[in-house]
Specification:
Elements: H1 2-5, H2 10-21, H3 25-50, E1 53-54, H4 59-67, H5 70-75, E2 80-81, H6 83-103, H7 119-148, H8 152-165, H9 168-177, H10 181-206, E3 209-210, H11 213-237, E4 239-240, H12 242-265
Antiparallel strand pairs: 1-4, 2-3
Helix pairs in contact: 2-3, 2-7, 2-10, 3-8, 3-9, 3-10, 3-11, 3-12, 4-6, 4-11, 6-10, 9-10, 11-12
């Protein structure tokens, strides 16, 4: 259930659609690329430093998670995500999510569940707030970029991605503190698949996404590498300790530093 539902983050999707609608495709791509990199390196790293965790996830789950960004990389070779590409990413999202869920069937258990009152009211109220907030965010980004001459691609992949996804740290660390490291990592895996499949696909369907050289030559390859690195560590270590957490966080810091240098040179 965590894999299926935790990654459905409308705030990230709304931010991406709004940024692309305001002619900031680099920032729009950053919501799902920078967001994925932030999850795989910064969120996992900080959570492991706060609370080292064990998680014996099936190798198939890790394999599908590592493969999740690959179709996005292939479809971006022409520096563009068309509506056809968006539809293909949505199809891949469904396949990958189903495969991960099936691969993790042995981890299923009974958890307490307390139903919420007025669920439809909460959903539609949240959608209305996200729509208005997404439009304000897109307009704010456009003004920041034009006024301060900051690369929208850099902004989307770093500051915007980190601010939107910061709450994920708690969603990974808290289950780990209660001995449920597999829930924390399932949240990361599910969100990654949603970002590189569902979010990227929907954004491209709403409006084709033009990808600049920073995106295709830096941010996209780093996203693929970051996810692979996390999955390899989880496969080899069956969890993350403070040493691995510090290493992941250092990698994220190096990525941000390189991104700033590349944006300044471009």
């Amino acid at each position: 259930m965590t894999v299926l539902l935790s990654g459905f983050e409308l705030e990230n999707l709304a931010a991406g659609i709004a940024a692309n609608a305001h002619d900031l495709p680099g920032a729009a791509a950053g919501t799902f690329l920078g967001g994925t990199t932030f999850l795989a390196l910064a969120v996992a790293g900080i959570a492991a430093l706060l609370s080292p965790m064990q998680a014996r996830l099936p190798s198939a789950v890790l394999g599908w998670t590592a493969a999740a960004p690959v179709p996005l990389l292939v479809l971006s070779l022409d520096d563009r995500l068309s509506r056809v590409d968006g539809a293909l990413l949505l199809a891949w999202f469904a396949i990958a999510l189903y495969a991960i869920s099936r691969s993790a069937k042995d981890l299923m258990g009974q958890d307490d569940f307390r139903p919420r009152r007025r669920p439809l009211l909460r959903i539609f109220g949240g959608l209305a707030a996200l729509t208005a907030g997404g439009d304000l965010l897109g307009e704010g980004l456009r003004r920041v970029v034009s006024r301060f001459d900051i690369s929208s691609t850099l902004l989307g992949n770093t500051a915007l991605a980190a601010s939107v996804e910061a709450e994920e740290i708690a969603r990974v660390a808290v289950p780990a503190r209660h001995g449920r490291g597999e829930l924390g990592f399932a949240n990361v895996a599910g969100t990654i698949v949603h970002f590189v499949g569902l979010n990227a696909g929907v954004i491209a369907l709403v409006r084709p996404l033009e990808l600049d050289s920073q995106t295709t030559h830096l941010h996209l390859p780093v996203t693929v590498g970051a996810v692979a690195t996390l999955c390899v560590l989880l496969f080899r270590r069956q969890g993350l300790g403070k040493t691995e957490g510090a290493a992941l966080l250092a990698l994220y810091g190096a990525y941000v530093a390189v991104a700033i240098v590349v944006a300044a040179g471009g």
